[in-house]
Design goal:
By secondary structure, the protein is mainly α. The chain contains nine helices and four strands. It has one domain. Keywords: Membrane, Transmembrane, Transmembrane helix.
């Protein structure tokens, strides 16, 4: 009987309230992206500068993702216990959030005075950091540790079931892709000219879209933790 239960496919039963909150959050993120032009018109150009307001908020969002992962690694999300698979995923993802935040800060160079100014605001460069040669090797070491944590955890066994679930974070990842495309467009890498009203303000759209890309990534992590949490509930009930 135990063998039959362990070989049964993993299913996810997300409460209706969680589904409603997710839909609301998805709608708000889409609305935020739709208002990127309005944000560029209202916010000062300096908000889109490197180490400006939007980039600072991005760092806060990334660190929030790291805190969420650390809480999950301790075994709880929303005050509820998590299984070993979710804990392993959390332990692997927390350092990645920290790496992303460090990259946004130019590995610490943004905390120093700028080395110059350009048409797009102050310029920061990690080349002035005395520890710059160690950044890439340490980042690779951290990523290798994260990969090892994923391999040794049980989360890889749940990946096929996660991908098949209608509640998987496909919507969050689609918003992430949409935001990344908008940011790339505003940066001028798609070969499509920006509208005249955005001339000189496209940097705000770029950073605004990048902010929502990170929000979508945090939301995707949350949704995966929710799915794994309720998969654990199902197994315990069996």
């Amino acid at each position: 009987m135990h063998t039959a239960a362990s070989s049964s496919p993993v299913t996810f039963h997300v409460p209706p309230q969680s589904v409603r909150w997710r839909r609301l959050w998805l709608a708000l993120m889409l609305l935020g992206l739709a208002l990127s032009g309005a944000a560029a018109a209202i916010l000062p150009v300096s908000a889109g500068w490197e180490n400006g307001l939007l980039e600072d908020v991005q760092v806060v969002v990334l660190l929030a993702g790291a805190c969420m992962a650390l809480l999950a690694a301790r075994g709880y999300i929303a005050g509820r216990p998590l299984g070993l698979a979710a804990k392993g995923l959390a332990m692997a993802s927390a350092p990645i959030w920290c790496l992303l935040a460090a990259r946004e800060l130019s590995w610490g160079a943004a905390l120093l005075p700028p080395i110059g100014f350009s048409a797009e605001g102050p310029v920061y460069s990690s080349s002035v950091l005395w520890y710059k040669p160690a950044v890439a090797p340490l980042a690779l070491l951290v990523l290798a540790w994260c990969a090892w944590m994923l391999v040794r955890s049980r989360v890889l066994r749940a990946v096929p079931a996660l991908l098949r679930s209608p509640q998987f974070a496909w919507a969050e990842l689609a918003i992430l892709l949409l935001a990344a495309t908008l940011s790339t467009y505003a940066e001028g890498h798609l070969g499509i000219p920006v509208p005249s009203f955005l001339q000189g303000r496209a940097v705000v759209v770029e950073e605004w879209a990048e902010l929502f890309a990170y929000l979508a990534l945090v939301a995707a992590q949350w949704q995966i933790f929710v799915l794994l949490r309720h998969a654990a509930d199902r197994r315990e009930g069996d």
